[in-house]
Amino acid sequence: MEALYSEDEKLLSKSMREFADSEIAPNAARWDENEEFPWASVEAMKKMGLMGMTSRPEYGGSGAPYAELAIASEEIARVCMSTSTTLLAHLSLGVSTIDKFANAEQSSRFLPEANAGNSIVAWALSEPSSGSDAADMQTTAVRQDADSYILNGSKIFITNAEESGVIVIFVATDRAAGHKGTTAFVVDSNANGITMKPMHGKLGIRGSGTAEINFNNVEVPLSNRLGEEGEGFKIAMTVLDSSRISLSSQSVGIAQGAFEAAIKYTQQRETFGEKLKERQALQFMLADMHTQIEAARLLTRRAAQLKDNGLPHNRESAMAKVYASEAAHYCVDKALQIFGGYGFFKENPIERMYRDQRISEIYEGTSEIQRIVIARSLLKEYAVD
Questions:
Q1: pTM
Q2: Domains of the chain: residue spans and CATH
Q3: How far is Cα 90 from Cα 97, in angstroms, rounded to an integer?
Q4: Nearest to residue 133, comparing CAs of 160, 96, 172, 166?
Q5: Is the pLDDT of residue 133 over 80?
Q6: Distance (Å, rounded) from C-alpha 290 to C-alpha 357?
Q7: Counting beta carbons within 10 angstroms of the beta carbon of residue 116, is it exposed (0 to 12), middle (13 to 18) or buried (19 or more)?
């Protein structure tokens, strides 16, 4: 890893590791056990300038490249995936959409508070009847007059919904046009007609907030529309291409956390008169874990560098996400195996990591969706006449 990073990136990695260990790790188990939103982490991340890390400096952001966001995301996810999910849903989905697609007036209205972390941004795409099929939009926005729209419908599995100040939402303005009839808006979370139902009982990332949002005749001004009518699907897919980079680094982080716990345990635990580290079978597990983590980190960094240099990264982001998430699955599984029965109880962080990791193969595009994206790109590049 050291050879990958510049001196500035090494300093960032070190400071983020210290921050995560001191400010986040001590509370992670409690947030998980109580399904408690990590407000203390949000406050700490605000002070670190993380809530607007990649956003434009003229609106209070830091303007950092995605390669640096990947480093920060990895270190946070290493100790608490709930906090990482909270940050990334706000920043690499919500804030990034406004940062990239809002006009100057909208940017001035929404970004300063969002970048400061005073207004958390939720991002609402998934619906009860459509998860991976994001183009099948049932929530609608009907033009009421020259200055406003009326929204009706529901969104589900929305991170940060109840905690948000605004919601970036994707709705159908012309259902007959399919995905070409999708439009993006920024909606005040406290607008009349919005109700939220918290979704409890998650397997993992229990410290992050998740809710269903219902819109009943919600009036949204024309001035809150992002781009033109019909551009929403393209906006959403563009944002997801970049956000998957930060999710890949999240997977690298939880895999790294599991690996570090496991290799430490092998040097402490004795069975049959010798340390676990002397067992070749466990040595092979550790070797495979570390190899997969390094490969996942390289794929993630490649995608981030393409993004930061303004180059296409659709395929590379998908490759990074599917590989990193499945590598994380392997690593938490092997770590639990190394810990044995001790890893099966809540007082061991591996138990939480094992549950938290699973969502990385589902949200922001399942592993199957990533493989579709990769395959389509390959078939286009290697097409035979």
A1: 0.95
A2: 2-119 (1.10.540.10), 122-230 (2.40.110.10), 234-381 (1.20.140.10)
A3: 10
A4: 172
A5: no
A6: 17
A7: middle
Got the DSSP string for 326-363? HHHHHHHHHHHHHHGGGGGSTTSHHHHHHHHHGGGGTT
Amino acid identity for residue 220 in this structure: V
126 phi/psi in degrees, rounded to 5: -65, 145
Q: How far apart are CA 358 and CA 237, in angstroms?
A: 23
Catalytic residue among 229, 364, 368, 381: 364
Provide the token pair at 134.
């994001």
Integer Rg of the chain from CA: 21
Statement: residue 302 has pLDDT above 70: yes
Residue 309 CB coordination number (10 Å): 9
State the pLDDT confidence band at 1, using cuts at 50, 70 and 90: low
Confidence of residue 26 (pLDDT cuts 50, 70, 90): very high
Q: Is 351 a catalytic residue?
A: no
Q: Please state whether beta strands 164-172 and 120-124 pair in parallel, antiparallel, or not at all (unpaired).
A: parallel
Do residues 193 and 213 make contact, with C-beta atoms less than 8 angstroms apart?
Answer: no
Q: Which amino acid is at 46?
A: K
**In terms of residues, how long is the chain?**
385
**What one-character DSSP code corresponds to residue 263?**
H
- Cα separation of 329 and 360, whole Å? 9
300 closest CA partner among 230, 355, 243, 352: 243
Query: Does residue 128 register a pLDDT over 80?
Result: yes
**Nearest of 225, 45, 192 to residue 118 by alpha carbon:** 45
| Main-chain dihedrals φ then ψ at residue 286, nearest 5 degrees | -65, -40
Neighbour-count burial of 89, counting CB atoms closer than 10 A to its CB (0-12 exposed, 13-18 middle, 19+ buried)? buried
> CA triplet 199, 202, 203: central angle to 5 degrees?
175
